[in-house]
């Protein structure tokens, strides 16, 4: 683990502490890379916005991966919905699921909005260690969801007694939760590629889970403890 952490920052001009500071702030607040460049300059650190972009692409998905084992268990009442994200000038679909208390279950960016995409998302969500096989899945009127759940029940991937509820107003929890992610994405005026969007959103979601008190050891309103926790995840001194 120590060797892997060392290699993760090997060859970087800046220290792990500075890099992780940039990652935490960019993924928490609705700012641009140029905003962050100016914030660094104010602290006497000269770093180009293009370098900041490369840091986010490298470390945002890594943060998401490393934070997963520390997530609190979610419950069996899923609220599933998809929202639109612009990538390379086109709209793509961000599938997201939260439980009845608003805790994040999982997310998936997809170029399509169909039954195959819904199945991929459900399979991914069911595979998370902090999720359980749901007793209810609340969705909107998208016809792809009944098709996807029937197939998954037939294959034994989804509990056969799980109830699918297509009641739009019951999904207010997840629809409100979309706003947090879209607010962070808005200053950038869209992503340059599907891969860029995927990697950045993974970081948005990871920091959002911290803000929702979902991460054991990282209190939502204690920035110092969050900093130390993330430093520990990456095997560095805070």
UniProtKB/TrEMBL annotation:
GO biological process, one term: DNA recombination
Keywords: DNA recombination, DNA-binding, Transposition
Matches recorded under InterPro entries: DDE_dom, IS_Transposase, RNaseH-like_sf, Transpos_IS6
Organism superkingdom: Bacteria
GO molecular function: DNA binding
A Pfam short name: DDE_Tnp_IS240
Stretches assigned to the DDE domain: 77-214
Protein name as it appears in the record: Transposase-like protein
Organism of provenance: Microvirga subterranea
Classification of source organism: Bacteria, Pseudomonadati, Pseudomonadota, Alphaproteobacteria, Hyphomicrobiales
